[in-house]
UniProtKB/TrEMBL annotation:
It comes from the Bacteria. Its EC number is 2.5.1.9. Keywords: Repeat, Riboflavin biosynthesis, Transferase. NCBIfam families: PRK09289.1 (NF006767), PRK13020.1 (NF009566), ribE (TIGR00187). InterPro entries: ATP_synth_asu-like_sf, Lumazine-bd, Lumazine-bd_dom, Riboflavin_synthase-like_b-brl. This is Riboflavin synthase. Catalyzes the dismutation of two molecules of 6,7-dimethyl-8-ribityllumazine, resulting in the formation of riboflavin and 5-amino-6-(D-ribitylamino)uracil. Gene3D superfamilies: 2.40.30.20. The keyword Transferase applies. It catalyses: 2 6,7-dimethyl-8-(1-D-ribityl)lumazine + H(+) = 5-amino-6-(D-ribitylamino)uracil + riboflavin. GO terms for biological process: riboflavin biosynthetic process. It holds the Pfam family Lum_binding. Lumazine-binding repeats lie at residues 1-97, 98-194.
Length: 214
């Protein structure tokens, strides 16, 4: 499990492409790799991956075809920067919300607004996924637990404070970028249960209740 509190930014050093499998060599800050064990779980842009090898501060991960199909990991190239979080341990502070590291879908950055001292980023989801998004609810974007601001049809936004921009790759985001999305599991369970009982959520055109920063 993960907390959605990104621990830093790592750099892709190499990508080895084989049929149905990409091996990613990713360099983390050295102090974040001192006690890593082979088989440990690390979230890379929110995707739970298993450490298969370590060379100094560089960790190796295998991403199989299903992972490449469902996430943006198949787009990664040497030099790309990614968010990372090592798996949570019992006793760790849960500063965000619990994540599984299993990506549901991807979204596209469609607008970036830069009011004074913060940034608002708008994302567009594939049809059907916005039913799980609510203002003030949670969503994980590239592994970061964020509070949802507005939801408009299949688009939503988040408001990012300077610390979030510093500690994650969101400070480098550009319109057109694709990101990994993990829906809050409790929200998904409630929405799906109500739908089975005949209380499906109606389509929403515009909702604006503001947002807390993350």
């Amino acid at each position: 499990m993960f907390t959605g509190i990104v621990q830093g930014i790592a750099t892709v050093e190499a990508v080895t492409v084989r049929p149905g499998l990409n091996t990613l060599a990713i360099r983390l800050p050295e102090h974040q790799t001192r006690d890593v064990a082979i088989g440990a779980s690390v979230a890379i842009n929110g995707t739970c991956l298993t450490v298969t090898r370590q060379e100094g501060a560089t960790l190796y991960f295998d991403a199989m075809q299903e992972t490449l199909n469902r996430t943006i990991l198949g787009q990664l190239a040497p030099g790309d920067r990614v968010n990372f979080e090592r798996a949570a341990r019992i006793g760790d502070e849960i500063g965000g919300h619990l994540l599984s590291g299993h990506i549901h879908t991807t979204a596209t950055v469609v607008a970036i607004e830069r009011p004074e001292n913060n940034v608002t980023v708008w994302f567009e989801l594939p049809e059907g996924w916005s039913r799980y998004l609510f203002p003030k609810g949670f969503v994980a974007v590239n592994g970061a637990s964020l509070t949802i601001g507005e939801v408009r049809d299949n688009r939503f936004n988040v408001h990012l404070i300077p610390e979030t921009l510093r500690a994650t790759t969101f400070g480098e985001a550009q319109v057109g970028d694709r990101v990994n999305i993990e829906i809050d599991s409790q929200t998904q369970a409630i929405v799906d249960t109500l739908a089975r009982l005949g209380y499906d959520r109606p389509a929403s055109n515009t909702t604006n209740l503001g947002s807390a920063s993350s």
